[in-house]
Amino acid sequence: MQFIDRCQLKLIAGNGGDGIIAWRREAHYDKGGPAGGSGGKGGNVILVADHNQSTLLSLKYSKIIRASNGDNGKPDMSSGQNGEDKYIKVPIGTTVYDEDTNEIIVDLVRDKQEFIICNGGKGGRGNAAFKSSTLRAPNLYELGDEGEVRSVRLELKYLANVGIVGYPNAGKSTLISKLSNAKPKIANYQFTTLIPILGMVELNNKRLIFADIPGLIENASEGYGLGHDFLRHVERCEVLIHLISMNPFDHDNVIDAYEKIMTELKKYSQLLVNKKMLVVANKMDAEGAIENFNKIREYLAKKDIDIRPISAINGDVGNLIDRVFNLYEKTLNTSNDDNPFSTPSVVEKVYHYDGEKAIDDDPLDVTRDGENRWIVSSKKLTYWFKKIPQTTLDNITRLGQKIKAIGVEDQLKSMGAKPNDVIVICDYEYLIDE
Fold this sequence. Notes:
This is GTPase Obg. By secondary structure, this protein is of the alpha/beta class. It is 20% helix and 23% strand. The strands form four sheets. Strands 3-1-8-5-6-15 form a six-stranded mixed beta sheet, with no helix packed on it. A six-stranded mixed beta sheet has the order 10-11-9-12-13-14, with helices on both faces. It has a four-stranded mixed beta sheet with strand order 16-17-18-19. The radius of gyration is 32 Å and the shape is elongated.
């Protein structure tokens, strides 16, 4: 299966159904009365974290995803059916960004976690909903609200506790195969691992997820090699294992190899180099490995950094697992979480989208267009012009009340507008009252 860990989508929730005008025409109801039903709510677009998903491949070619619209109201005071919600399954560990602002909207880190990413529009009310003691036969109805539209970017960041980083051919795949149940492709050439490999490691009834991150090279953070595409998977790891081959045939200079990887991590994000890190010397079985090990050990000692020798291919990993588990526990703030081996906390930007309420603070934009002509616009005005169709006298009266409540005439008069001046709102023209 092709590994895809990021994609862009345009998500469109369903529009609300329209309300209608209808009247009762039944025996025993000689006075009739309003019977127009309200429209159904539009369907939501909902993201769902699913442990059966391991890649975003299924969404790569789905540029636009829509939920269904609500049905219009019925003439027997029945509401239209709500639109069907659209569920989008994504892998656990998917972070959702707003494409316009680059803000994180939600981080889906738990199986079956759901998040409404786009809310469906409210249904418009039919004339039955406007009946009151003072308005017995309303010729009023509304159109449904438009569903929310969002452009988003999905990025998969694996939920690994421990990330293994290093140059290609450092032996990362061999190490994870010895430590865990993972079965990666292993060969003696660079870039054998083309996707992150996860493995579960157990110790004393505790479990950690280890990730073999595809090999980094110099300038990986700028897009060279494979590393740039996969460095994001390291972001969630609390502990990093920096694996370095001691085989002289793998590096011209083992110290340079160490520093170049550290540079790439820092260039990608300072947060990566601030993580707890174990430096591990691999391939100690190779000829000339001891000389390389002594050289880098002496170099790192000056930085007060410890380095431990192993031979992953021979299964000689010493107490590496114990050290990783101990370091992992130390990195977590156990005062906020009694179980440091639990699932990460959920990050969610909570918001509610509700047509008019979403634009409550929108100011009026007034432009003079000639001596006696004014162009007025605002998101709130646009909302009500779409909401209230000017097809009945009652609707026209109600829309005029909305315009007045928004403060259009008061602002125009304060700017020097006179009676009988022309106001243009949403391509409709009106005269200012005397």
